[in-house]
Amino acid sequence: MEGLRIAALLAATITTGMVAGVYAIWANTIMPGLGRTDDRTFVGAFQAMDRAILNPVFIGLGFLGSLVLTLVAGLLHLGEDPLPWIAAAFVLYLLTVIITISANVPRNDALRAAGDPDTIDVAAARAAFDEARWRRFNLARTGLNTVAFGLLAWALFLAGKAAA
């Protein structure tokens, strides 16, 4: 049973860290880079990346998998020292899911639905997307998810210490 507890917590920690990295890459490179492009390039590139990220590996294993793995790790550590850290990480990660679904995804969907950049008013589509708002929410989820990763790393340390 100890091996399963550690494995679940390790998997939750790794996937949470991976998703934090995805958010950080968007915050530190992708959006600043796209922000320096013309409207057609911005719309076309964002649409292409949005389509690419909607895949079973990222959505299933990373984005949703991290939440499920953190929940499982918490349930497997009921009454143990790592539990409060796992629970706090779960809440923070859940907040990133809520932010993503309520703030970022609707903007992504609207930009995707705007149509082919060769046939639409790309300036209007980009303005309606509201890059500044998308970036603010992405920074929030980046920070929350990074802290969740740190909390899970600490919980993993405590679990390993208890197992030793």
Automatic annotation (TrEMBL):
Q: Which UniProt keywords apply?
A: Membrane, Transmembrane, Transmembrane helix
What domain of life is recorded for the organism?
A: Bacteria
Record has Transmembrane helix as a keyword:
yes
Pfam families tied to this protein: Anthrone_oxy
| Ranges that cross the membrane | 6-26, 57-79, 85-105, 143-163
Q: In its keyword annotation, does this UniProt entry include Transmembrane helix?
A: yes
Family matches, as InterPro entries: Anthrone_oxy (IPR013901)
Name of the featured protein: Putative membrane protein
